[in-house]
Amino acid sequence: MIWSAETIGIFFLTGPVPDNTIGKLGKLESLDLSMNKITELSSDLWGLGSSLKFLNLSMNIIRGSLLNNIGNFGNLESLDLSQNSFYGEIPQGISSLLRLRLLNLSGNSFERKIPEGISELKYLGALDLSINQLNGSFPDGFSSGFKNLSYLDLAGNRIQGALPDLSGLKSLTHINVSENLLQNSASGVFQAAPSIVDLKSLTHINVSDNLLQNSASGVFQAAPSIVDLSSNQFSPITFGSSFNLSSLVFLDISSNHLDGDFSSNLGQASSLKHLNLADNRFSPQKFPQMFDLYALEYLNLSQTSLTGNIPTEISQIVGLRTLDLSHNQLSGRVPDLIMSNLTILDFSANNLTGEIPPLLVEKLRLMKTFNF
């Protein structure tokens, strides 16, 4: 095994890191012990001090609290402790790492609130605290200092209250706050105020599985490719005037309180591959005009109050793999679907009549699931 005074990459280590080992490497700049089975850190690790710039302990089985001594690494630029068993509070010492550009503490059991001082990390470009047990509300001034932040992932926690105003995060491309307990309107991301229009770089929005309600009218002022607003209480959701629908690849607004008709603009989403509008309160209406969405692979219109016949033009979407029209008021015969890639089909809980077309019967044996 070779130990370098500049960079160490060690693999397949098991058990605790012995004391009086790493701490002796006073000029160490980069330490990568990821993807091992380390259970405990050496007590002298914290003695590395200001020389360390990159620390990666991800994907181990380290169990214990994270000491406030983490603040000793004043020149640290990247800290990745993801996929371990750290627990307790995220120490306030994190806010002393003023040069930090990446902070990844995901996949642990950290609890209580996000530290108040975390907004002091002004150079931070990526922040991932997902899949922990964090609770409470966002700290005051959470987004005010993150001028360089492009990636924010807080999914899979128990964070409460409203989203903060994110309009100042001009570099933000990815936000995921799904599977939390966020409430009230999502004004921090979706308000129609002019400031949010400036978030031109935003490409990925996921606020699913929260308790967000009221309007989400400003979400589409940006030009994201992935939008997931599912499992909330939104009503309505509208497209902003500056939104370029052709950039949209994934749209899930299922399980909300949407009413009225489908948006007539959806036909402009020429790059759309995944569309889920299921489980809403739309008015009874005929099948929407979306047959020009040739890139579509997943379409779920279950529980959307569809009436009338299933149009034969649905076969024009030749790339469809999943088609779910269940739990509607569709009537007439099942059309002869010619899509060769179809693997999941659900027409159940409708008022369809007649026999299944012979060509479709032949395709059923190649499907993963089907339900009439």
Automatic annotation (TrEMBL):
<keyword id="KW-0732">Signal</keyword>
<dbReference type="InterPro" id="IPR053211">
    <property type="entry name" value="DNA_repair-toleration"/>
</dbReference>
<dbReference type="InterPro" id="IPR003591">
    <property type="entry name" value="Leu-rich_rpt_typical-subtyp"/>
</dbReference>
<dbReference type="InterPro" id="IPR032675">
    <property type="entry name" value="LRR_dom_sf"/>
</dbReference>
<keyword id="KW-0433">Leucine-rich repeat</keyword>
<dbReference type="Pfam" id="PF00560">
    <property type="entry name" value="LRR_1"/>
</dbReference>
<dbReference type="InterPro" id="IPR001611">
    <property type="entry name" value="Leu-rich_rpt"/>
</dbReference>
<protein>
    <submittedName>
        <fullName>Leucine-rich repeat receptor-like protein kinase</fullName>
    </submittedName>
</protein>
<dbReference type="Pfam" id="PF13855">
    <property type="entry name" value="LRR_8"/>
</dbReference>
<keyword id="KW-0677">Repeat</keyword>
